[in-house]
Prior knowledge:
This protein is of the alpha/beta class. It is built from eleven helices and twelve strands. It has one domain (3-308): Aldolase class I (TIM Barrel).
Amino acid sequence: MTYSELETLYHLPLFELLQRSRKVHEAHWPAGEVQLCTLLSIKTGGCSEDCSYCAQSARYNSGVTPERLMEKCQIMERAKAAKQSGSTRFCMGAAWRGVREGTERFEQVLDIIQDVSELGMEVCVTLGELGPTEALRLKQAGVTAYNHNIDTSPEHYPNIVTTHSFQDRLNTIRHAQDAGMSVCCGGILGLGETTQDRLKMLEVVSEFNPQPESVPINSLMPMPGTPLAEQQKVDVFDVIRIIALARISIPKAKVRLSAGRTHFSEEAQALCFFAGANSIFYGDKLLTASNPAVEKDLALIDKLGLKPQEPNRNLPAPDADSKKALEPQLG
């Protein structure tokens, strides 16, 4: 969807925008289901990147203690607990710049993925940059989706990260898609960006070919010691508008209400679900930040008359549109 189309929708009266997004949502997601995802940091802190929002960067005194890659038995224990609590997708994140073929840590991660995939849940990983070989091996090991957010607009990105480029992000997404993995890609609101930056972020994501399988919408949770530690909280109505636009512009994607939910009332979360969100991170912790408790999430889902979505490991990656160029680029 083009920037001008997104801008026109964004400035509609809120209720009119919600009516439009709800119509799209019901056309593509009529079952009233919410995907429950558990996110586990399998390697925390000590990252060489300088992402201004991230407490895991080694460049900032954020209080996060660097940890080595978790033992497989520990990860499997957490994955089994996630499945037992109702999660249908298990997401594993590692604070690395990327992974490379032929390294011990990559082989260790592949071994972990293979065992987790045998539990029957969807498997998502976020490991930083990928080349085509690494992407293919992840797919073969059992990864169903690769998470790699673009965070913000191409124009604002250099203000947030300098150790890699926006195009680097797009290259990894291309490699994941070419390997046959679905892509989980969204952004973060509250990075000092303008409304225009938010709309340009959605324009880029909606123009992926194929479109992402899931789109996380994060609200910055300012972390002590990071350059964005003093940022103001995002207005919840801004979040609701962006969720509505994500639903309209990427209709077949799961739109994930991600980081920042601890700041939202139940009423605000209900509006997010109405606007088009149908996926959440579920559990007590979201990487290095807190997350609403399991029982509280289940109770809210029940109050709204929704139900947890079943896992679908056989869900194919979205098809590319042959009418579009296959290579995501800036422009």
